[in-house]
Write a structure and sequence with these properties.
The complex is a heterodimer. In chain A, the strands form 2 sheets. A 5-stranded mixed beta barrel of chain A has the order 4-5-6-8-7. Chain A has a 3-stranded antiparallel sheet with strand order 2-1-3, with no helix packed on it. Chain A has no helices and 8 strands. Chain A folds into 2 domains: 32 residues; 76 residues. By secondary structure, chain A is an all-beta fold. In chain B, the strands form 2 sheets. In chain B, strands 3-2-4-7-1-8-11-10-9 form a 9-stranded mixed sheet, with helices on both faces. A two-stranded antiparallel ribbon of chain B has the order 5-6. Chain B has a single domain, classed as Thiolase/Chalcone synthase (Peroxisomal Thiolase, Chain A, domain 1), CATH 3.40.47. Chain B has 13 helices and 11 strands. The two termini of chain B are 23 Å apart. Chain B is α/β, with parallel strands linked by helices. In chain B, strand 10 and strand 11 form a beta hairpin. The chains are: A mainly beta, B alpha/beta. The interface between A and B is large, with 47 and 51 residues. Strand 4 of chain A pairs antiparallel with strand 5 of chain B.
Chain lengths: 125, 402
């Protein structure tokens, strides 16, 4: 969700509270088909794991840092951005926050915006 | 209680590049040799289960029959990612346990030499206009933009998560490279391995970085290969020759699990929970514990994966995988040898063959036929595979008392 306060939106099972980032027919956690509601995911989190991808499929720019961020109990997959992509600068357990990343503009002039996570310490406020 | 099942014959082809052999050549070679090893023929088989994950063939079993004998028996074509071979074996075992057959044949085969990176595939060009598509409503492909979908990177994160959760203070790169050093050292004794050169820590760490901390030799080797096994019911085995009974290996446990839902499993595949569940069920079914294992072949698709499975399979104290490794325990002269075949990093990983090839390795030692790499006096072994999606196969095998 963009706007003045960009954030990620997850679908939360109305029965058990499990969260998903894609469309589900029923809940993979509890099996309920009671439905899902949109919930805002915390914008800050902790880097639980990462890898620095140096060799990727053709067309994917390298290197980049891929990681898993624990956003206050909701795990999110994303790139770690605005950081040197090496093991000196990317540290397990470091605090990160959501950042928007331009993806490009299409032929209709629409800009696509992606997301990543940047270190809290070194990012500009 | 269903009756016991035994592995009567088993074979793996040389893993590596086989430019002059197609999928059916390799599968037939493994199947014919497994039946010869068992002292039986295709006419004895009551069921066939076969897998070939990447070949795009929906009926590999029937195609194999056309090379080795069309006898009209039921064929199960199975696919379960990297656990495809174990799934084929498990299917044949289930048919025997159900009393539907006395003999079963399981075959796994793959042509994968030169396949390169597996997981994401090439990035497609972005479309002319941004349009949300698919179940995530993405306007563009996600690989490289929202994390990585390539296997070396996915499994790198699996290992990095473990050392983060267990507060490892050393250098992750060196730790994982040392695991790879062990497996490459083990591979020097395995003539069927795709690569059997010893590699120093410096060579491993200095090789091409794929996805930190996995360099190229820390990744499983794509190669060609096949493996096949003949299984037999306990009652039928009793009617066979002493030589057959002596070489038969008892299937003490045969378990297949899928991944139960966990909070983060949609974000990073959870290879731990289903492996822990499979291991617990396998030890219970076999009536043994991890301390009874003379050797273990586990799914080291990447060096970073091997570490977490020490813990998942209960080979160490909970959280103690690093200490377990650093103690030297999983080396072939240690107290719990792991991947004495050289593992997937050196032996190679022809996907659908892997889940039978690791059982071949264990059987080889239990039969006392492993030559230079024999683990002396081996009586009980465990073979583990995991395929993302996910599926986990664990088999516990025991030497015959005959």
């Amino acid at each position: 969700m963009l706007g003045s306060d960009p954030h990620l939106v997850a679908k939360e099972c109305t029965s058990c509270g499990a969260r998903f980032f894609d469309r589900r027919n029923a809940c993979a956690s509890c099996g309920s088909d009671a439905g899902f509601r949109d919930v805002e995911v915390a914008r800050e989190g902790v880097l639980k794991s990462y890898t620095i991808v140096a060799f990727a499929a053709p067309g994917v720019p390298v290197p980049f840092v891929a990681g898993v961020v624990d956003c206050d109990g909701t795990s999110v997959r994303g790139n770690v951005v605005n950081v040197e992509p090496d093991a000196e600068h990317v540290r397990l357990g470091m605090k990160v926050r959501l950042a928007t990343v331009p993806i490009g503009t299409d032929s209709a002039g629409t800009e696509a915006v992606g997301f990543g996570f940047e270190p809290v310490e070194s990012g500009a406020i | 209680m269903a009756e016991d099942v035994w592995i009567l014959g088993i074979h793996m082809t040389k893993f590596g590049k086989h430019p002059d052999k197609d999928t059916l050549d390799l599968a037939s070679e493994a199947a014919l040799a497994a039946m010869k090893d068992a002292g039986v023929s295709i006419k004895d088989m009551g069921v066939l289960a076969a897998g070939n994950l990447m070949g795009g063939s929906a009926s590999i079993g029937q195609q194999i029959q056309k090379q080795i004998g069309q006898t009209g028996i039921p064929v199960f074509n199975v696919a379960n990612a990297c656990a495809t071979g174990a799934t084929a074996l498990r299917t044949a075992i289930m048919a025997i346990k159900a009393g539907e057959a006395d003999f079963g044949l399981a075959v796994g085969v793959e042509k994968l030499a030169g396949a390169g990176l597996l997981g994401a595939g090439n990035r497609k060009p972005d479309s002319d206009t941004w349009e949300p598509k698919g179940r995530v409503g993405a306007v563009a492909t996600l690989d490289g933009r929202v994390g990585t979908e390539n296997m070396p990177g996915v499994f790198a994160q699996v290992g990095m998560q473990y050392i983060h959760e267990h507060s490892y203070s050393g250098t992750p790169f060196e730790l994982f490279a040392k695991i790879s050093e062990k497996n490459h050292a083990h591979s020097t004794l395995n003539p069927l391995a795709a690569y059997n050169k010893k590699m120093s820590l410096e060579q491993i760490m200095g090789d091409v970085m794929i996805a930190y901390p996995n360099t190229r030799p820390m990744c499983s080797a794509n190669c060609d290969g096949a493996a096949a096994a003949v299984v037999v019911s306990d009652s039928k085995l009793k009617t066979l020759s002493l030589e057959q009974r002596r070489r038969a290996v008892k299937v003490k446990a045969s378990i297949l699990t899928s991944d139960p839902w966990q909070e983060a499993c949609q974000v990073l595949p959870d290879v731990n929970t289903l492996t822990r569940s499979a291991a617990a069920q396998a030890y219970e079914q076999a009536g043994i514990g991890p301390e009874d294992l003379d050797l273990v072949e586990l799914h080291d698709c990447f060096a970073t994966a091997e570490l977490v499975h020490y813990d998942n399979l209960g080979l160490c104290e909970p959280g103690g995988a690093v200490d377990f490794f650093m103690s030297g325990a999983p080396w072939r002269d240690g107290k719990r040898p792991v991947n004495v075949s050289g593992g997937l990093q050196s032996k190679g990983h022809p996907i659908a063959a892997t889940g039978i090839a690791n059982i071949w390795e264990v059987c080889h030692h239990l039969r006392g036929e492993a030559g230079d790499r024999q683990i002396e006096g081996a009586k009980v072994g465990l073979a583990h595979v995991i395929g993302l999606g996910s599926a986990c196969g664990v088999h516990v095998l025991e030497k015959s008392a005959a």
